[in-house]
Design a protein that fits this description.
The chain has 134 residues and is α+β, with helices and mostly antiparallel strands. 28% of the residues lie in helices and 29% in strands. The chain has a single domain, classed as Nuclear Transport Factor 2, Chain: A (Roll). It has four helices and four strands. A four-stranded antiparallel β-sheet has the order 1-2-3-4.
């Protein structure tokens, strides 16, 4: 158990700390899966890139997410951009989540692996996004 002063999930962080001290616990990173919707992946990479720059197009998002991000909070998301530009963006998981599609990408930003999770409506609007450092 450890204590973290963070408002993001720290499960992977805790696992990473354990893996440093107990290398036998290391697991292989998830491999990319087949992507049946490459247009969606290109769109979500654009969204991730814009977020990392603290900008974006409000029309990409559902109304509740628009209200959350715009006009002011979108700027605060550029903190993730301090890691560097997106070098890779690989789909590692998809699932249905109450009528929304959940798509998870393993992303290399600079020299750091970041996991982006998006929730997308059938109308192809982003209804949620989360990112965490691996």
């Amino acid at each position: 158990m450890f204590l973290a002063n963070s408002d993001v999930p720290v499960g992977r962080l805790g696992g990473g700390i354990f893996q440093i001290y107990l290398p036998s616990l290391r697991t292989a990173p998830p491999k990319p899966i087949a992507d049946a919707d490459t247009a969606m992946t290109r769109f979500l990479q654009r969204v991730a890139t814009a977020l990392s720059q603290g900008r974006g197009d409000s029309s990409w998002y559902t109304p509740p997410v628009q209200q959350f991000y715009f006009p002011d909070r979108i700027e605060s998301r550029k903190a993730i951009g301090a890691l560097g530009a997106i070098k890779s963006f690989a789909l590692i998981e998809t699932s249905d989540d109450n009528g929304r599609q959940r798509r998870v990408y393993r992303t290399m930003m600079g020299t750091t692996w970041v996991r982006f999770t998006f929730w997308v409506t059938p109308a192809r609007k982003v209804d949620g996004v989360n990112f965490e450092i691996e």
